[in-house]
Every structure is written in C-alpha cells, then in structure tokens.
Write a structure and sequence with these properties.
3 helices; Glutaredoxin; 4-stranded mixed sheet; about 20% strand; alpha+beta; 4 strands; globular
Length: about 100
Amino acid sequence: MKIIMYGADICPDCVEAKAKLAANSAIELDVRDITGSTKVLKEFLSHRDHDEIFAPVIKAGAIGIPFFILEDNTKTFEIKDFLDKEETLHYVNSCSIDGKGC
C-alpha cells in the first residue's frame, strides 16, 4: 500500500506515525515535511484550503497533521483507518494551534 503523509518533524504525532508506518513492510511511505520546503507546504495548503475533510480541523484551530493520502486517494487524519488496532495503540492525533497538542 502506498501512502503519502504530510507532517512535520517538530510534531510528535507525525514522528510517531512516521515511525509506525516506516516499520510496516507492507507500506510504501512518501513522507512530505511541510516545514522542509515551500513547495511541500503549498501542496499541503492546497489540500487544507480545498478539501472538505479539513473543515472541522480548521474550525477547531488545528493544523491537520499528520495528514494521509492513501493510494486509492482516500484522505484521512487517522492512522487507525489503515493500520491494525494493535499498531495504533499509543497514537493520538492531537496537533493543534492552541498548544494543547504537539
């Protein structure tokens, strides 16, 4: 399974998700660090500005990372949507602008 993951190395949730996905040999992971280049940030913002999945994230004041695009173009913030429950036990998606996450 191919997965694109938008995130940042300064986000603990992203770091944990990246490690879990990289450890799974059934996953071909394409990590895109939104803090690493303007091009990648613009890609992410294009999703954030136009995809309905981000509406509640924006309303909550969250960033919306980690953000995953699966090979069938399914978009999700939840690693549990495509990994077994045991593999996601300690994962919590909580990055937010208000500082309560990350």
